[in-house]
């Protein structure tokens, strides 16, 4: 029986919970045992502190006391709290309020879950099983400890939902797996029987990121929600901007990718925008911007909205900051200008319907990919292209994504966009 664990890693994004829910439910429906790993790779490196080393192959490190509804494949008995899974104990605190929860989960990162444990996940923002940016997992020893913890819990398949950094970690773990298990056997950390049983680790990636920066997929889980949050914020800012006839420079996230800024600018009818993939062609970007904005004012606009991606730069690759843009608008155009950095409001909040659906379809596909994978199959990442859920080799997608960043640095913007989206035409 496949023991499949799901974890979320890196920056959170709306829809990650829907992905976990889909993976858990699909895994159970397909006859697997389902687990979640709390706190991303960090949790896998830590393992279950109180029980480390106590579980042999085939034993289940179940919760003690058992979580309501936590028995795989079974539904919550009617005399138990309906929303009694570990999430209630961990994040939202229903059981916590009743005096459980923290006690149940302290020091436990790898948790077996049942059908009801993920009830209600689809509509909740963030990631209820926690995430972290894990330094230990970047080191080979950290990944070896993670491998040991997987084997101790009898887990032979992992679905990882995260951005390109998290998925690179996933691919590394799988590539190094033979080396890890040999070393663990040699060190006496695992038995020969465990070595034979866990020769292959199956890993499948799901792209959870607000940045929508992964090559080879049209949309990442959480990007649409973040875009929606940005649009709401820009709409709110627009009305006060109009009242005061002010200018606003609004900085949005996206790391090296301008997708959020570009789409927000289109959706809100912004006056001007800066994105890394299309930096201003003129060295004097200040004058080009001012002439456009002045024209809009001359045409009677009472507000000026400039959207700037956090990774924006000029044609010499010097970072353009929101503060710099503000100074230009104030000094050259005499506009009363404010800067708003939207920050983590973009990442938080409940997922929009699209992200729930995307995460659900992709989560289900991830389980199918696990079940059909062979030792020879490269780890896949689940994407969406032209409205169809796709699988492609994980490392290829990650390598392309990293190459996009390099091409932008080399000012090969066409090349970067063509790599990110093969259908791209200028
Ligand atoms: O990758 C997602 C993202 O939100 C980026 O857009 C942003 O640059 C970064 O993460 C912020 O990271 P943190 O939450 O660690 O500050």
* Structural class by SSE content: alpha/beta
Instruction: Provide mean pLDDT, rounded.
Output: 87
Lateral strand order in the biggest sheet: 3-2-1-4-5-10-11
Number of helices: 15
Q: Give the CA-based shape.
A: elongated
Secondary-structure element pattern, one letter each: EHEHHHHEHEHHEHEHEHEHEHEEHH
State the helical fraction: 40-55%
- End-to-end Cα distance: 49 Å
Beta-strand percent range: 5-15%
Radius of gyration, taken over Cα atoms and rounded to an integer in Å: 24 Å
Largest sheet: 7 strands, mixed
Ligand inventory reads: 6-O-phosphono-beta-D-fructofuranose
Low-confidence stretches: 51-102
Number of strands: 11
Subcellular location: Cytoplasm
Subunit structure: Homotetramer.
Protein name: ATP-dependent 6-phosphofructokinase
Function: Catalyzes the phosphorylation of D-fructose 6-phosphate to fructose 1,6-bisphosphate by ATP, the first committing step of glycolysis.
